[in-house]
Amino acid sequence: MNVKLILAALMLGAIGLTYFFMDRSPALERARRAEVGAEDEWASRTVWACDRRKMVIVEGVRSDEKIPPARAQQVADVLQDLMRYCNEEITARISTDARITIAANGKVYEHYVVGGPLPIVKARFGDPTEREKKIWKAELDKLVTEGDRLFHSDELGTNGVACAMCHPNAANTHPETYPKFQTQLKEVALLRDMVNWCILNPLEGKQLDHADPRMKALEAYMLAARAGKALEAGKH
Amino acid sequence: MISFRVRTSARWVCAAALLLASNAQATDLELPVPEGVFPPEIPAENQLTREKVDLGRTLYFDTRLSTDGTVGCVTCHDPRSGFADGRRKPTSAGVGGAVGARNAPTVLNAAFLASQFWDGRAATLEEQAVQPLINSIEHGFADKDAVVARIRELPEYAPLFEKAFGGPEITIERAGQAIASFERTLISLDAPIDRFLKGDTAALSEPARRGWELFNGKARCNTCHGHVDVLPLFTDDDFHNIGVGIAGIDFDTIARKAVDAVVAGASIDELAISNEKASALGRFLVTREPRHMGAFKTSQLRNIALTAPYMHDGSEATLADVIEYYDIGGNPNAYLDGGMRPLGLTAQEKADLVALLESFTSDDLERFEDLKKLAP
Amino acid sequence: MYQNDMTRKEIEFALAERSKEDERTLRGLENCDRRNFLRVSLKFAGMAAAASIIQPHTFQLVNVVHAAEDGAQPELAFRFAYVSDTHLYARGMTHRFAKAALKAVEDVNALDPQPDFVLFGGDLAQLGRPDELALGQQILKELKAPVRMMVGEHDWYLDLGEKWKEMFGPDFYSFDYKGIHFVTLNSVVEKDFWTAKGYTPEQRMAIVSGLDDNRQSPFEVGEPQRQWLSKDLAKIDKKTPIVVFSHSPLYKLYKNWNFWTDDAEQVQQILQPFETVSVIHGHTHQLLTHRIGNIHFHGMLSTAWPWPYAPEGLPELTVQMSRSDPFNQLDGCGNGTIDVRKNGRVDKRYNLWTRNPRVVTASELASGSLTGLGGYKGPSY
Question: N or C: which end of chain C has fewer CB within 10 A?
């Protein structure tokens, strides 16, 4: 009986300690507070977002006090807004006069307004703007369309055969299965190797360089046509 | 009769002494398979032992294992001719000089193949070894019992069988197992092409290098004769009708007759070797599937320069003739493989392909010098 | 004594997925004399062929005909052959499509006995050009047996059928032969998609020739032909077997590739009252089998190239051919014959070049026994 209790207690203790130290090591927290200029630990309350990366320091509220509703709502609004920046570590400080200071990416921004843009966005690669996305898609569509045209034309071969004759809508090309041992080539092939083999054999044409824009276009078209299919390298 | 035996016995004693004395034996139980290559499949019931290999070798070179004493395995699979037929006629001949319908393939590296014979009718070397013994054209024996009776007449075999199989019983199956064991030691995978593929560009001459590009490109060889690292035999182990020897062959009529014959009990082995027309049916005779009509095994290409003439009926005398044959797209017939087509090769390209094929000849064939001395 | 050339293992495997009745059939093969073997093997050959589990003994087909004389199944009334979807370019007789078409002609000419007639299944030309049609006509003239022509979309949309009708006659018609009423339809009619866009005839033809080109309209038979069909069939007794030749399948399989007839239901309605109806269609370039009520549908092989199976809509009864090998220009291609039985039902024989032939019999379709074969699934495309 005793042994069980002791073990349980130890386990809980271990979990608690882990939890405590995970993202909340005191030293780390102090460093982040320093970034936003919230030195005074006694007269402020810290609230963490569920991703354990964003923290809001509310000033003018003692750490053992409940945050008044209006200010609590403000805290929630700020956290919600900051959640836009996935995976970012951001520290916010709400001063007693409701000014919000943000520290992110090693930089400090005063005068942050909820819902407003943060300069950190423009510095992050993985987070394109809508405008950028439009540009990128237009360029891709251009290449895919060119690939579509080549795929359906007879200009790659000399005998009038087009890729689309055996592969309507790029059916049965299975670009998602490469690399795999391609029995016609007797070696492991990538998609472009097979494209070239088909150009030489059923189409009786001249093979393309792997870096040829036409080769890129063909590959782009096939991958676009098979978008969403699971990768299954080696599947025949 | 008695003097006959004494004369030949002396030779066997010499042979045995020679082999005991030599060091470089192709009989090491460690088969000389290079790293990264799948070893030959060995049936569980015929594990490789030195004793079996010795017995097998003795049987292989023994021309007394034929009705008229002139034919041994060595007769058509001679180490002096790349383990193929030294006669250099289109097809091989057996007892009494009887000429058969097929061109004996090489035994060298045959251990790696998925099936034996031009039509794949034997799945293993064991199954292959016994069929020529009871073929009327080849070794000439009427049946298994006749073969066993002949072996029993030869006193040196009893102890060899005893040593190899742990018992005195002589059966044709055991003979086959022994011969197969010996054949498994006939491995040679060290040719210039192998070194080239491992990165030594200088291993091939310039024409041969061009030939390799053609082999994998314009000449369309690699789809059937492709090289794979784990089984570098240059064969897809499949059967294709490439239109060889179809002149005057009415497939449908002959096929019907042959099927009736086989269903009534005729031996496929006998039909394939002794009957030219039935022989032309190829794999169809074995599987009776229409897609196999006139289809023959894709030959392995190792040491191909040593094993002229070429094709199942020996109809192409030289490698240049073979390339020429493919260049025209084979002989049209109702069952011609759709992969055959005119290639449009230039004279230079054809020569380059021949140069390439010559680079498939192994560099280490002197390992088999001792075996050449055993040939009659 | 005929021997069963299947190994015990193969029989066991086949049995593992079969019904009790099939089990008995298969066991019957193991120890039987000639008569029983033939009678029993007929059914098995068809089943095994359909399941593509065990390749049929080729000359079982010869034996099958003999078995019919034993009364095992309805007697053969007559046989006709087909050559379909040749898609010829006018680039001489050595072009791969021309060579393949000639091969099909040679196959049919080698048949002994000769078929009663040969159906051409549509898409003679690739781009509907007069020189392509002329080349096709020249090749088909080599056939010894009489030829019945059917039009495909590749023949039609350069000049909307002018050249075709001039060379080959009406694009829809009917005829009676040995008690069967044959109807040939032009089922590749498309609603006008070109005038509004101002396409030239060449552009229109190029669009229609793209299987996956959705700028074209779906195929249909159309109101005028449906009316003609009703009138034509009005004089025919409901017991008379009907065989319909159509380029599009007369049912709805996959709209994207026009494996589709838009007014299929209406056409089927006109055909439904007849007891025995078989549709032989082109366009799909593959093994394809379907049944709707009492109507059997069989696709024809192309001589030029095989289509992959559509991503959806494949009828359950279809046992697919496996993916073709692009090294081999004949793989997945071929021609075939259709056996018309005395009861008006048809057995479809696919003469696949480079593969074993496949027979799909009417009795299997009618009994639905093909679906009972554990739903053999081919590869996904």
Answer: N
